[in-house]
Amino acid sequence: MKALLITTALGASFLTACANSPTAATALDVAEMSATAQTMRATIDAGTVPVTQSIDLYEAMARALSNNLDHRVAMMELDLARRDFDLSRYDMLPRVVASGGYYSRSNQPGASSRSLLSGRQSLEPSTSTERDVWTADLAATWNILDFGLASIRSEQLGNEALIIEERRRKAIIQIMEDVHAAYYRALSAERLTAQLRSLEGDVRSAFDASRAQYQSRSTAPMPALSYQRELTDIRSEAQRLSRELKAARMELASLMGLSPDQQFSLSRADVLPRPGGLAMDYSAMIDTALANRPEVRETVYAQRIGDAEIKKAVLEALPGIEAFAGLNTSSNDFLFNQDWADYGVRASWNLMNVFTTGKRKKKAKARAELERQKGLAAAMAVMTQVGVARMQYESLMSEYETANSAASVQDEITSQIEAQFTARRASNQTLVRERMNAILANARRDRVHAELARASAHIYTALGYDPYTAELTGSEDIATMASSLRTLWTARVAAPGS
User: Fold this and answer.
1) How far is CA 305 from the centre of its chain?
2) In 10 A of CB 242, how many CB atoms?
3) Cα(first)–Cα(last) distance of the chain, in Å?
């Protein structure tokens, strides 16, 4: 009867499992996607420190370090890799397994024996096991081969974590370089936006006046049309420049982790800071870059992982020796000793690994050699980048001097034309043209200055220097980080490469 009940229960469970088919996944509907989007936006806004004052370059860098979502992702990837490394060390410990069980049957277990010589039954049916038995055991095993392989794997995971750390360094170094360029382009936008708006109004008024004169035939057609064409070209140039400047603000907002519609203002300076001359010769820059660049350091860690693969290939060909010990207990009253301990040593050897060891070693050596060649390629690329960065910086220094002189001359020309226009010795057409030329000259100077600021920061990118001091972790408040960054980068701008 008991067996019938158990059979019936198992059959019902099987039929229920067969009838319960998996539910098909459904696409997101509009309401669900809208709710998800709102949640994402609220999460992004909640993680951003409110803007309460004008932002200078160092606060922009601090906000990028604290709020930039790409940097947060890199930090989380690094944290996950470190956790994998921490967990891997537990694989080197002995395995300790506790188990328990219950056994029962519908009748008494028993058996008889038969003589192999006479074929007669030599023992009447008997039992040595109760119908209901409880068992429990605690066993510890430790395999020396597994310990060696786990140790190597842990070492590899440690190097993988270091590789991810270098990738995080590379990402934040690039972000800081981008902040330098975007900040000064956005600062140029604030400096020139009001002038562009005023100029566009003057251009529109002059165009409407010229158009009215042309339509009324009160002026010669060709000079009027030529003037209107020139005004249209000026207006088109002003609109293009305004679009570029607005894009710079959005780029800076993105780097700082602010939403695109976030309102903020930048700290304006009457005189743009001019970076100084390089403080390190080319040979010293090469040596520094090869020691610090994330790409080169990453290949060194990859070579370590490749060398460890060779060790693994050798170890896997060896026999495994496993020591074990355990404590056992049973409720079976027929046992003479219901509690006992067992221990011993076992050896096992997968002989197939012996035949494949040579091929696996060759593969591991080929991988290690590949990583070494990648390291040489990375070193060569770094040396080239250092040379290019140095050349660009020196060239931009000369370009900035020229652009700054051109802007100063154009400002003086504009002042002269404004005085002549007031004295009615210059036309409105000339005044509008020179005002536009002044704006373009200042925009060109600001653009070159932004490129020079990026080139100055790129010197440190090429050298592999961290963009912040060692005491900063990224968890400090914005003001603390901005103060530390101001001290560091003020010295760097004065003498790039120092």
Assistant:
1) 22
2) 17
3) 90
55-101+139-493 CATH, one of 1.20.1600.10, 1.10.10.10, 1.10.3810.10, 1.10.8.60: 1.20.1600.10
Q: HEC states along 263-332?
A: CCCECCCCCCCCCCCCCCCHHHHHHHHHHHCHHHHHHHHHHHHHHHHHHHHHHCCCCEEEEEEEEEEECC
Strands 111-114 and 320-330, bridge-based pairing: unpaired
Phi, psi of 179 (to 5 degrees): -60, -40
Q: What is the distance, to the nearest Å, from the Cα of residue 445 to the centroid of all Cα atoms in its chain? A: 33
**Stated length of the chain:** 498
What are φ and ψ of residue 135, in 5° steps?
-130, 155
Q: Where exactly are the structural domains of the chain?
A: 55-101+139-493
Is residue 348 within a helix (H) or strand (E), and if so which, with residue range?
strand 339-348
Query: pLDDT tens digits, residue range 145-186?
Result: 888 888 888 888 888 888 888 888 888 888 888 888 888 888
Strands 132-143 and 95-104 turn out to be: antiparallel
Residue with tokens 């009027």: 224
Q: CB within 8 A of 299, min separation 6: which ones?
A: 371, 372, 374, 375, 378
155-164, 234-243, 246-255, 437-446: least confidently modelled range: 234-243
CA nearest 125: which of 149, 107, 143, 100? 107
Q: Distance between CA atoms of 408 and 415, rounded to whole angstroms?
A: 11
Q: Which of 159, 181, 146 is nearest to 350 (CA)?
A: 146
Place of tokens 């290949």: 299
Q: Hey, what amino acid is at 159?
A: N
HSE-up of residue 492 (Cα within 13 Å, Cβ side): 25
